[in-house]
């Protein structure tokens, strides 16, 4: 038989199994739906036992349905043939037939581990590993690795090779796909590492860090649904664009109970994607801000009343600015969050008024302490004063007050330079929308001020809490596991914010120091260590193969940072396409026209997405050059939004400008140049 007809025969063989799996899947769906309907019946009886039973049934039925209804494409993707002659099919979920025999083994089950772990050197009882590729319910291809030729039966067929290469060469769509069929051994080691403590995954661009982190989340949820499922898993990533790009990976594996948040969306009730100029973001992210904010809270409110004057039984009791200042200092020194100190503030004022009354006492005026305190304490004018002098503090308002350079300079004395104060004050004075770096400051202030009285913060229209109520309590901090992607870019203030969400969590931390856009890694490391608390167990995995870029593209990207790193820090790209990137110098006046032309050419040549990456400052300008293109596969992004993203073809416009704009220079360029899977064009203004 020819290789072609052998392959058709093997495809037909697998199709028969796949048909059985889908038929059984239909049965299981029907059973789960029936169970859900039955649980409603139970509810009608309304006894506490029946209601409890109903809730358990309903929860179970809904979870099962959710898992069974996950994207059905590629449900069965692998098969292992063992030395003892058994065949095991591997899939995105586990399915048993009516006799309870395995029709499909979940990729996360121990039985499936050999699919990822077996190598010709250590075949682990596996003779042949097969990757099955399907389109909907139709098997279209099989691809085999023969791991143990000596133990293979005579008639065993081995078809084609390179399931991984085929997967990597395929064009990319809007969203990231799961990689369950082709997870590589070094990746699988990180995915299946124990849950507790901190698991750190590093590696260069395209080594699959994000993919591995998401598959690890799915794996951990599968292995310990009870511990992780309730408290939940949080995944934090750089931008909303990125979160949307990775949003389908977990649901495609049947996992819905994972919260995905960009750094500008971590705090409940407010979300932003706006970024500051690098220098401003750097100051806002620095841990010096903790002290600045602490001090800012101790300052009197901007419209603080200058004196307190109360008429009491013919006497005028007066506290002047100096006396009020001394009372404020004493209250501040107690270290209690100001919103929790409001009663104490009232008591301190009344006590000072009593002292004043004592000083004024004579034969006509004989004040009584209890009487004075009760009477003045109930007066509306006293309360008006208190509200103005010691107002309830709302984090966003406190931050907005710092747009006054004099006020900020007081809070930042000896912490920020005059130039830094100006930059920050200006950024808040010109505020139309909060920035991503502000969110961590607002979160810090939330803790420092303490909870304000239960009245909605007077926020501007754009900052109104989103109407979509979070499923968990506001600013929930009980996640059982937190995944941080692109961790190299978190500022110290952002580490503090994320750390608050995982007080009792185990962690998966994913990043690449070489791609860092944070200028002071040591400061961020300290904040990170604090955020992770006293986690003792710490394991580290390094991924060394770049699966995204063609070798030709990665060669150009690596050039940008070659002299900044040791050779071992750069991954090796495994796939050659024979297509060299195009690097062109263009006169500035012609840049718009040439960009338009180059992008149209990339769209014509690439099957999937095309990304145009430029400086943050020129984003809108470059987008306007391309407004006539009108192809939904085209994306124009600034360098920061390109973090973690991937496109089939990329045009990098103004690479030198991009490096110059970032505080980490060529590292930012390295990120931009390493986004393409197939084609890269670089346009450098002359
Ligand atoms: N084992 C694999 N099989 C198939 N595709 C893979 C595999 N590993 C990684 N990929 C693909 O390689 C690309 C890069 O993966 P990913 O985005 O996770 O890399 P990364 O290390 O996070 O990159 P960066 O640091 O540049 O953000 C993705 O398209 C991913 O699906």
UniProtKB/TrEMBL annotation:
Binding site for ATP: 203-210
Domain UvrD-like helicase ATP-binding as annotated: residue spans: 182-550
Annotated keywords: ATP-binding, Helicase, Hydrolase, Nucleotide-binding
Region: Disordered, residue numbers: 452-472
Source organism superkingdom: Bacteria
One Pfam entry name: UvrD-helicase
Keyword match Nucleus: no
Matches recorded under InterPro entries: DNA_helicase_UvrD/REP (IPR000212), P-loop_NTPase (IPR027417), UvrD-like_ATP-bd (IPR014016), UvrD-like_helicase_C (IPR027785)
Name the UniProt record assigns to this protein: HelD family protein
Organism from which the protein derives: Saccharopolyspora griseoalba
Species classification: Bacteria, Bacillati, Actinomycetota, Actinomycetes, Pseudonocardiales
């Amino acid at each position: 038989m020819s290789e072609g007809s052998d392959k058709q025969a093997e495809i037909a063989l697998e199709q028969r199994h796949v048909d059985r799996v889908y038929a059984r899947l239909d049965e299981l769906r029907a059973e789960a739906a029936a169970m859900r309907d039955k649980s409603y019946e139970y509810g009608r009886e309304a006894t506490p036992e029946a209601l409890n039973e109903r809730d358990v049934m309903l929860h179970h039925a809904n979870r099962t349905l959710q898992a069974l209804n996950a994207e059905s494409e590629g449900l069965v993707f692998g098969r292992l043939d063992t030395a003892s002659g058994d065949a095991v099919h591997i899939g995105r979920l586990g399915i048993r037939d009516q006799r309870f025999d395995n029709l499909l083994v979940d990729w996360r089950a121990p039985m499936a581990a050999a699919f990822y772990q077996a190598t010709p050197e250590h075949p682990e009882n596996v003779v042949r590993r097969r990757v099955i590729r399907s389109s909907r319910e139709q098997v279209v291809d099989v691809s085999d690795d023969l791991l143990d030729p000596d133990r293979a039966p005579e008639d065993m067929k081995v078809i084609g090779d390179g399931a991984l290469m085929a997967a990597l060469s395929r064009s990319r769509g809007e969203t990231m796909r799961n990689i369950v069929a082709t997870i590589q051994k070094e990746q699988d080691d990180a995915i299946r590492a124990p849950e507790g403590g901190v698991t750190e995954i590093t590696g260069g661009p395209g080594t699959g860090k994000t993919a591995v982190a998401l598959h690890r989340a799915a794996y951990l949820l599968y292995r310990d649904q009870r511990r992780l499922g309730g408290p939940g898993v949080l995944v934090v990533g750089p931008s909303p664009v990125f979160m949307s790009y990775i949003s389908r990976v977990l649901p495609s594996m049947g996992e819905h109970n994972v919260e995905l948040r960009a750094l500008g969306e971590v705090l409940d009730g407010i979300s932003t994607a706006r970024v500051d100029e690098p220098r401003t973001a750097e100051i806002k992210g620095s841990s010096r801000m903790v002290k600045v904010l602490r001090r800012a809270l101790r300052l009197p409110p901007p419209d603080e009343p200058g004196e307190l004057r109360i008429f009491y039984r013919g006497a005028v009791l007066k506290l002047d600015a100096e006396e009020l200042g001394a009372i404020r200092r004493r209250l501040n020194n107690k270290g209690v969050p100001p919103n929790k100190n409001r009663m104490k503030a009232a008591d301190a004022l009344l006590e000072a008024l009593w002292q004043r009354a004592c000083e004024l006492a004579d034969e006509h005026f004989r004040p009584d302490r209890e009487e004075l305190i009760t009477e003045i304490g109930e007066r509306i004018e006293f309360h008006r004063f208190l509200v103005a002098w010691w107002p309830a503090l709302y984090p966003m308002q406190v931050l907005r007050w710092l747009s006054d350079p004099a006020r900020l300079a007081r809070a930042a004395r000896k912490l920020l330079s005059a130039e830094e104060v100006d930059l920050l004050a200006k950024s808040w004075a010109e505020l139309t929308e909060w920035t991503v770096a502000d969110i961590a400051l607002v979160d810090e202030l939330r803790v420092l001020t303490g909870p304000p009285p239960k009245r909605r913060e007077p926020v501007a229209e754009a900052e109104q809490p989103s109407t979509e109520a979070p499923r968990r309590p506001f600013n929930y901090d009980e996640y059982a596991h937190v995944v941080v992607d692109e961790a190299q870019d978190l500022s110290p203030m952002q580490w503090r914010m994320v750390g608050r969400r995982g007080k009792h969590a185990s962690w998966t931390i994913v990043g690449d120091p070489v791609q860092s856009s944070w200028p002071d890694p040591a400061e961020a490391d300290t904040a990170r260590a604090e955020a992770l608390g006293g986690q003792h167990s710490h394991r580290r995995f390094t991924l060394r193969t770049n699966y995204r870029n063609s070798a030709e593209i990665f060669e150009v990207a690596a050039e940008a940072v070659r002299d900044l790193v040791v050779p071992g820090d750069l991954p090796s790209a495994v796939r050659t396409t024979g297509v060299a990137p195009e690097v062109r110098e263009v006169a500035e006046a012609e840049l718009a026209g040439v960009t338009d032309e180059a992008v149209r050419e990339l769209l014509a040549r690439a099957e999937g997405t095309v990304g145009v990456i430029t400086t943050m400052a020129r984003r809108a300008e470059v987008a306007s050059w391309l407004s006539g293109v009108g192809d939904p596969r085209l994306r124009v992004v600034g360098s920061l939004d390109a973090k973690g993203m991937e496109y089939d073809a990329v045009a990098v416009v103004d690479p030198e400008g991009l490096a110059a704009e970032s505080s980490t220079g060529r590292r930012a360029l390295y990120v931009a140049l390493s986004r393409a899977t197939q084609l890269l064009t670089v346009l450098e203004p002359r």
